[in-house]
Design a protein that fits this description.
Keywords: Cell outer membrane, Ion transport, Iron, Iron transport, Membrane, Receptor, TonB box, Transmembrane, Transmembrane beta strand, Transmembrane helix, Transport. By secondary structure, the chain is an alpha+beta fold. It is 19% helix and 42% strand. It folds into 2 domains: 201 residues, no CATH class; 553 residues, Maltoporin, Chain A, CATH 2.40.170.20. The chain has 11 helices and 35 strands.
Length: 905
């Protein structure tokens, strides 16, 4: 059995024979030692925390931050690549200068941009390793020494005032040398792996081969699924996964970037606050808030932000550039081993082009002072391709107090493809600011206090920025495939909102500050000293790694793929909840410094047993460490949690171009780190809530259970249809409410539903799509007098449209309809929202191959629907101090138009 496994792992073709049979054993022994060393970053802190030693604290610090850990391993890898004296010179230079940095920190010298330089160091060393960059020995040492100083300074900042400087320094120097050795060992191991897996032609020979045969290259048959027009019968693992390509996106009306996610059947992306902030998402009976439980990725890098100041899973997609999207791959349900956190309901992975077919210059202008400019293209550079894009957007919206939304957005990507392997480095940057028109109370509109597009607090708004750098490497041959991705993201948000108006801060609770607040008056100047506005600052660094290795082999006569993967993520976060008037802070509800680290190994096997049976079996482990340091010491804490999640899929068929699917799996809902350590209310300081119930810490990871039965058919020529019956249970919908700084208890729930998606191309110039989604959502336990409706769960979603192109000499475009039905807004089901229906359309004309013009119209029926509706207590001037329960909504924009041109060259 052992020999069979080794032969399967090492086989690059048929009838191969190893000259060194002991090599596989040495390889696995080395691999085991390497994994043991890598895991020490997690196990050593756990084993040694009980020992109170300055040396140990110094030793642990480099191992607890992925920015330090990855950089120091990278120095070892680079030293091993350079060989010779560099193997000992670079590590020695690093620890020597790092010690000086620690001394500078201990001496309280002020050094700016330390964290930025630490992140940059990891990125620089990644580039020189991937690119195999070699400078002179002196320059190599200078590069290492420069970045080492900042790492040492950061280590020194973590040293307590009472600690022994020498002992602490020896500790972090020892850990650093250990990590350098791990890097050197990793580089040596990579050479062994390369020699065994890829360079096996040097160690193995085919029977009866000839010199000419040895020089033959292997050509792989590849099936590329780039859109809904491509059949996934025989490819897909479930009925609820698919791909959307640029061909489908470029003929759709898109008013904001997030609407590319609405190509996922059944998904609604709306907004309750003008432009700028993350959108509100709905899918499969879930109000996903700003992204909880739906994983969104850009080229495999997660967009969801955990423990965000405004909400768990915050998914801000405003940095997306639709014209750069090559394909969007979606997978609904928790049935896929490669997806972990935030993926219980589904996932979407947006992949950008490596190379554009032509340069693009695009400008669009329209209603409400909207304009957008875009320049994008790609150029051959050296052995690779440089992709670039720059974008600016401005939008005032129909609001009386205009959004004045202004965004700058850019991307650079350099990529190389060489035979069976390739790599790329991608940098993205975006920055924006805006004023908000948040949701308004229905009674304020009915009483004539405000107009439909007015605001109650005109001082709401915010600003954000996001910068990221991603490195990716991939390789594939006849026997295996490997993919590696590392990323670093810095993001910052300042958000100011007021959803209850004058409920907490009014003329009764604060008569001096609100003395001028008269009944019926909504003078904007009042918000300089009154009202319930709050601020939610969020500042974070996110780093991560994703790696997978797939073996192509056989189980008996059946073709089989087995994938082993590892995903690591670390977030260092500073956020808070503040009390503000007109964006000026006058109080603090809570401030937190949060560190969340996760490690997730997984394995998955896909086997094609015969012509009508395929299986997909996966197993995933997710382990988390949460560390919260709060402005209220009672809410400090460190917790660990982990879950094992099995996945299973079975595919029957195809018969008559039709397949049947059975899928099931366990997943989890992750809770905000602040919610799992909170022991006292941050507002009152009490250990009990308003109802007198004790405040209990939330469970870090809550189990979810999902299953699905589906069918996919292309039996009718030109028509692709999928039908899925799905079910999902969640043990608790406990929610940390960023707007209040506390955890809101909830109950276990059950959802089930039906999805019917269709894509029809009767000709090569015309397509129709129609997607129908119906769901039923209820809490599983009844509470007398409350009810069991899940608030804001959308039961019905319909999306349909038609697109045409190259008609009558160059016309293109089409209409698009979106409908999401009424939904219960409270647990009793008595308060219901109205449905929302929007119709939009595009009409364009290609003047020639280099120039096209297009016109877009939104809300063509000029309906006065709501983008989103809530039901809760708020207070207007002169009302009862306890407030009034009322419908609170954000209106959709009225009919609007945009006109633009696109030049290609």
């Amino acid at each position: 059995m052992q020999k069979f496994i080794f032969d399967s792992l090492l086989r690059t073709g048929s009838d191969t024979q190893l000259h060194t049979p002991e090599a596989p054993h040495k390889y696995f022994i080395s691999l085991g030692l390497f994994l043991l060393l890598s895991c020490s970053a997690f196990t050593i802190p756990t084993l040694l925390l009980a020992v109170n030693s300055d040396w140990i604290h110094g030793f642990l610090h480099p191992l607890q931050g992925w920015d330090h850990l990855l950089t120091m391993v990278a120095v070892g890898i680079w030293a091993a690549q350079l060989r010779g004296q560099a193997i000992w010179m670079l590590p020695l230079a690093f620890v020597s200068v790092m010690s000086l940095g620690g001394l500078a920190s201990a001496a309280s010298l002020a050094i700016p941009s330390v964290e930025i330089m630490i992140l940059l160091s990891g990125l620089v060393f990644s580039v020189v390793i991937v690119g195999k960059v070699r400078f002179s020995a002196r320059i190599n040492v200078l590069i290492v020494a420069f970045f080492a100083f900042f790492h040492g300074y950061a280590h020194g900042q973590e040293m307590s005032a009472s600690a022994s400087l020498s002992s602490y320094t020896v500790g972090f120097v020892s850990a650093t040398l250990l990590l350098h050795c791990a890097g050197i060992f990793t580089a040596r191991l990579a050479v062994i792996i390369f020699a065994v897996f890829i360079g096996s032609n040097a160690n193995a020979q085919e029977k009866n081969d000839s010199p000419a045969d040895k020089n033959k290259s292997v050509t792989l048959d590849e099936m590329i699924i780039s859109g809904r027009s491509d059949s996934q019968v025989g490819v897909a693992d479930s009925a609820s996964q698919g791909n959307i390509g640029q061909e489908q996106l470029k003929y759709r009306t898109i008013s904001r970037p997030v609407e590319v996610l609405e190509t996922v059947p059944g998904l609604i992306a709306t907004q309750h606050s003008g432009e700028g902030k993350a959108n509100q998402y709905f899918l499969r009976g879930f109000n996903l808030d700003h992204g909880t439980d739906f994983l969104t990725q850009i080229d495999g890098v997660p967009v969801n932000q955990l423990s965000h100041s405004h909400g768990q899973g915050w998914t801000d997609t405003n940095f997306l550039i639709p014209e750069l999207i090559e394909t969007l791959e979606f997978k609904k349900g928790g049935h896929y081993a490669e997806n972990g956190d935030f993926s219980s309901i589904g996932s979407a992975n947006i992949k950008y082009f490596r190379e554009l077919p032509e340069h693009i210059v695009k400008f669009t202008g329209g209603s409400f002072d909207y304009y957008r400019g875009l320049a994008a293209g790609s150029e051959k550079l050296g052995d690779g391709v440089l992709l670039y894009a720059g974008e600016t957007v401005h939008n005032n919206g129909p609001w009386t107090a205009g959004n004045d939304y202004l965004k700058f957005n850019g991307l650079l990507r350099y990529s190389e493809e060489r035979g069976n392997h390739g790599w790329n480095i991608t940098g993205m940057a975006t920055k924006s600011d805006w004023k908000s028109t948040d949701q308004i109370a229905q009674r304020a509109l009915d009483q004539g206090r405000i107009g439909r597009f007015d605001t109650i607090d005109p001082t709401d708004g915010g600003n954000s920025q996001r910068y990221s750098l991603t490195g990716e490497w991939h390789r594939q041959d006849t026997g295996s495939e490997t993919k590696l991705t590392a990323y670093g993201i810095y993001s910052k948000l300042n958000l100011y909102s007021n959803f209850t108006y004058f409920l907490d801060n009014n003329e009764l609770n604060n008569p001096e500050g609100c003395a001028g607040l008269n009944p019926g008056q909504l003078d904007p100047s009042l918000f300089n000293s009154c009202g319930d506005q709050f601020g939610q600052p969020d500042d974070r660094w996110t780093t991560g790694f994703k790696g997978s290795h797939t073996l192509f082999h056989k189980i008996g006569a059946a073709d089989s793929d087995t994938t082993f993967g590892l995903q690591i993520r670390n977030d260092n976060i500073q956020n808070g909840l503040t009390k503000t008037h007109a964006q000026v802070q006058y109080g603090v509800t809570r401030q937190d410094t949060i560190a969340v680290t996760s490690i997730s190994p997984y394995a998955e096997n896909k086997t094609h047993w015969n012509d009508w049976l395929r299986t997909n079996l996966g197993l995933r482990f997710d382990g988390f460490r949460f560390d919260v340091k709060s402005s209220q010491s009672q809410n400090n804490g460190e917790r660990y949690d982990g879950l094992v999640s099995p996945k299973l899929g079975v595919v029957f068929g195809p018969w008559a171009n039709t397949e049947f699917y059975l899928n099931g799996g366990l997943g989890y809902h992750s809770n905000d780190a602040r919610g799992i350590t909170t022991r006292v209310d941050p507002v009152t300081g009490s250990a009990t809530d308003a109802d007198g119930n004790p405040i209990t810490r939330a469970t870090p990871l809550v189990r979810t259970y999902s299953s699905e039965i589906g069918v996919r058919s292309t039996w009718i020529k030109g028509l692709q249809s999928t039908l899925a019956l799905w079910w999902l249970d969640i043990d608790s919908e406990l929610l940390f409410v960023g707007d209040a700084g506390t955890t809101e208890p909830s109950r276990p729930s059950r959802r089930y539903g039906l999805e019917f998606a269709n894509y029809y191309s009767p000709t090569d110039w015309l397509t129709f799509d129609a997607d129908f989604s119906f769901s039923h959502s209820r809490f599983r336990n009844n509470v007398d007098g409350i009810g069991n409706y899940v608030p804001n769960s959308v039961a019905t979603v319909i999306a349909s449209g038609a697109t045409f192109h190259d008609v009558f000499g160059g016309f293109f475009g089409g209409p698009r309809l979106r409908y999401f039905g009424p939904r219960a807004l409270d647990e009793s089901g008595d308060a219901l929202s109205a449905p929302t229906l929007l119709l939009s359309a595009m009409l364009g004309y290609e003047v020639n191959k280099n120039l096209s013009v297009q016109a877009e119209a939104f809300n063509l029926l000029n309906r006065k629907d709501a983008g989103i509706t809530y039901y809760y207590a708020s207070r207007l001037p002169g009302e009862n101090q306890d407030g009034v329960n009322d419908y609170v909504f954000h209106p959709v924009e009225p009919i609007s138009f945009r006109l633009g041109f696109t030049a290609k060259f």
